[in-house]
Amino acid sequence: MRYRTIGDGTTSFEVSTLCLGTMWFGTRTDETTSFAILDRFVEAGGTFLDTANNYNAWGEGYGRDSEDVIGRWLAERGNRDELRLATKVGAAKKDPNLPLQHVPPMNYQGLGAETIAAEARESLRHLGVDHLDAYYGHVDDVGTPLAETVGAFGKLQAEGLVGVTGISNVALHRVVEAREEARRQGVAPYGLVQQQLTYPYPRPDVGRRNWASYELLDYARASTEAGSPLAVVAYSPLMQGALVREDKPLWAGFDHPTTHERLRVLREVAAETGATPNQVVLAWLTGADVPVVPIVGASSVAQLDELLGAADLDLDPALRARLDAV
Length: 326
Ligand SMILES: NC(=O)c1ccc[n+]([C@@H]2O[C@H](COP(=O)([O-])OP(=O)(O)OC[C@H]3O[C@@H](n4cnc5c(N)ncnc54)[C@H](OP(=O)(O)O)[C@@H]3O)[C@@H](O)[C@H]2O)c1
Fold this sequence. Notes:
Order of helices and strands: EEEHEHEHEHEHEHEHHEHH
CATH architecture: Alpha-Beta Barrel
Largest sheet: 8 strands, parallel, barrel
Bound molecules: NADP nicotinamide-adenine-dinucleotide phosphate
CATH superfamily: NADP-dependent oxidoreductase domain
């Protein structure tokens, strides 16, 4: 395993370059398997875990299953201090009787100050810890003034409950505005932005706010070089299995000629390196010019074992150039 430092200019810490996603823990992935995946990740040197306060209200669960499973595992293993925990607020149900959806009637709890303050404490309680290393807004909330959201995150930091803050599913201009607002208020700016990113890319779409665009990567690089670090964290880097599996269709917006060409070249490069396509994509992300932290999901130890094979994989520059050129 390799490690890198993430931070916000005030607080910083080391994380494994692969982050473990735990979205289905306690729902699609039963607790025994979840514990085995967590054990294997830690055994391989993994230190960075990603969860949320709503995993998985999209599926069969009640929302906090993932945090609860992690909490019970941490309590059993007694290893909280060896790990860096990230959770999220803002996309849990506002009204528990309505479905969780972000199209009207919108039912996200949002990023108001009261919600952030209360939900952080709930996450601490469910995880059974006294601080969160990283805390994200799960989905941007344009209905709440940015000043209120930023101030609420800053308050949690001042109280020692949260290390680095971040935002997910957000337009670049809102990340910039939020970080400038943080400076105005004298609080640490977001040090993390979590977006979807994999090797194929979606058709351009003005309404898509969840993709890690090249502009975002460039902004992260420029900010970091200017002394205000911003790390890009990528969710769904494996396209939930669609890079390699016939049973997993390409997502809407990704089924275009460049994707098919990218997948063809990906398979070629994988064959030449002796790695799997999933491993090549993870190495392509972690070793990129602007290095990205992929959050990998796995529903079995065998799947995770394959993904861990990417932790120490370096892509030859000529192969990377071939992947980039498509
Ligand atoms: N910020 C956000 O809005 C957001 C959104 C989504 C996810 N996330 C975070 O990102 C994490 C990862 O996201 P994700 O699960 O969508 O993406 P992913 O890592 O791209 O996909 C994980 C899925 O890919 C399949 N897979 C994994 N390893 C495999 C292997 N070696 N061979 C074949 N198939 C394999 C499995 O599908 P099967 O289980 O079906 O076999 C697994 O559940 C989540 O757990 C969560 O922490 C954040």
